Task: structure prediction
Amino acid sequence: MNSIKKLLGYVWMLLAPAIICFLVYEALEKMGAASAAQKANVTLQWMIILLIFTPICIGFFIFGKYASANEYDHLPESSSEIE
Amino acid sequence: MSQTKSQNSIAFVIGASSVGTLIEWYDFYIFGMLATIISKQFFPADAGTAALLSTLAIFAAGFIVRPFGALVFGRLGDLIGRKHTFLLTLVIMGGSTFAIGLVPGYATIGWAAPILVLILRLLQGLALGGEYGGAATYVAEHAPAGQRGFWTSWIQTTATLGLFLALGVIIFIRSEQGVEKFSAEWGGWRYPFWISLLLVGVSVLIRMRMSESPMFSKLKTEGKISTNPLKESFGHKANFKMVLLALFGAVMGQGVVWYTGQFYAQSFIETVCKVEFIQSRDLMLWAILMATPGFVLFGWLSDKVGRKWIMLLGMLLAILTYRPIYKQFLVITSANNRIEKIDLASTKISEKTVVVDKKDNTKIYVVQHFDTAYTDGAVFKYTKTDTLHLSATYDPTIKIDSLSALSTTLILTQSAKPNVVIEKTMDKSSYWSLIWLVFVQILYVTMVYGPIAAFLVEMFPTKIRYTSMSLPYHIGNGVFGGLVPFLGTLIVEFTKNEAHPNGDPLAGLWYPIGVASICLVIGVVYLTNKIDKNVMD
Result:
């Protein structure tokens, strides 16, 4: 199980930047295709989406990094292991 | 005797915490449910800046601000205590909700109206971000070991009951007043906001009688409370990795399952299946009412068999059945499987009526209603509107109030396609089939959501619990969950092309299915099913 956790950790590390790239690509495409009347609103919506999901994807990358470093092989059983 | 006293005491803790949390959810939901009226009352009809503000107020504030509320009030809860913090969030939420009901419309105070509404909506989001973590922590820290899932599940029912209460109040006032009175500037739509003040007042009185969480009091007496909860929660790797695991292995999947079952389902039934306004809300109420005991059932069960597999089973079932369920929504509400009643009494076709645009008197709408009745009792109402633009030679002093007054020489252009609005009133059997399909989805919600508070509480130490559990909860629910209706609709837009102008109505489900699938894999591989008996540490 620990090797699966580690292997999947690399998958999450790759998935995180892939999601950001996908969102940036979609944002550029949709903002470009928006009509003049809708442009400001579409831009705002996509900026909000990017603003929200970029830090989440960075968090996902860090999660993958921890997983690939076997940080989740043993989960803490008491608070003394966390503090 | 002492056991009965302890049961009474925990029941009071649950009751007092739950009532306040329920009211916060009620406050949060009424804004979203009345969004259409709010945008008409507080925002000018033209696009541009108004649309931007509308987007910020209605779309963004609810999502972005909740995690910030979690940080602000979570920190406060770990520093000064649970009781005072969630008393504060309740007052902020109640006050801002009541104030929204008092803001005059755009017609009266102009731009001040949308700006005030935006600020009040931000306050609502902040307060909600601080409330839930506090209530869940407070209840869990009072609950006896081995019953934490059961007792915290009562807090979990509040989100759904808040939705139920908001829907019920809105439907009641709207049907009492009628659509026109309800939607007027100072009409009935404001009443649900005003009612909030009364509810919050009662809840504050109840909460004032509550004592501080025993665990937090103990830490305070021993001088062990955290001096910097944010740093200890997110600056220390040992705790931060658990925050990430909570988010990606449980809460993001729970969030999308919750919002798909309770919000996307309603929006799909109303906007894609075109079921009539009141009926689409009524059936949600029935489904919610029937499924709500599931929260307590699965919370209780999680004390016996562990939290992990119940939550993950809920996600798995959602992933496997969402597309068949939504496909069934389309089949049930389709005209294809019905036999039309072909007699003059059942199939009504109205006369064409002419309506002149209020702002542009060269724009004329020709409206006609068709009622199609079916043998099973369903009635589909179609309203067809043709838009005509009058020629420059049109003399505006000529009053056009009927088709006969509208000579063909006056018409410059006609819209290529008429706008057809469909309103379907379902027959009894289809109505109950829809309720059943929504009920199944809400049952999944109870599986993923019932045990989650106990699960999160057990992941983090007392002194930083409020902060640590609030952030992943509000990212998972506010962001991943809250974006389900928006992203779902956006994905459907992507599938539209010339060959398929309506796109694939089921495509929007790929977002919740995708997020829940990643969460399921992470949950299966990385989470433990062990129940932490001692949350005192």
About this structure: The CA atoms of residues 20 and 53 of chain A lie 8 Å apart. The two ends of chain A are 26 Å apart (CA to CA). Chain A has a mean pLDDT of 88. The helical segments of chain A are 2-33, 36-68.
